[in-house]
Amino acid sequence: MITQSALLKVMSDAARKAARGLNRDFGELNELQVAKKAPADFVSAADLKAEQTLFEALTKARPGYGFLGEERGLIEGTDKTHTWIVDPLDGTTNFLHAIPHFAINIALEREGVVVAAVTYNPITNEMFWAEKGRGCFVNDKRLRVAARQRLDEAVLATGIPFLGHGQHATFLKELHQITQRVAGVRRFGAAALDLAWVAAGRFDGFWERDLSPWDIAAGTLLISEAGGKVTDADGGEDMLTKGSICAGNLEIHPLLLERLKAAAK
User: What is the pLDDT of residue 33?
Assistant: First the structure.
């Protein structure tokens, strides 16, 4: 039986606690209070409630840590070396349309490095978790990235820019470079789960631009601890700053990065 550290237990317990409210609200579309945040980008009462639950649980367990959340922004703590990076509901649009594919995302950054991660899908009850140097798991099963070595065998995931969001022309160029060389491209609408699924070997790779730190912080650690490679879309280490990401195993990652660079020419 795999046992989590005290830190991972704090994170997993917080995710499960927030999930209880999301599970209650899921599918109750008529009951959800929805406010428009931006075109095609919604925030629901369920979203805000989940972040409040996470904030309370995490700050109670680690009182001095900072907190960076999608809804409330950055709250600095007395401990300047630690910051929680939290998305209470990644895949909000799926959630609001009763599509059972969304996640709670929690990462802990220590002195600028992500050292612990949890991505939890309340519907499937899959808890993806990792701690730096200790491997990546889903529930109590150890994970490894897929072993495929060629793009023509690979199924990749991405996100598609939507109304008022993202670089549409850049995306279409990248898609043109990639789709003609791979076995398939999927767009499921929750970057956190896409990254967790790369760690689990379900997807062979993932790329996307215009993401926020809370979308990808946890996933970067899940994939690296599962033996994969993660960079920004230019091949650098600035994923959280640039908001772009390119991920895969050690063979697929450079091939995917090559296609992204070709699309930029």
Answer: 58
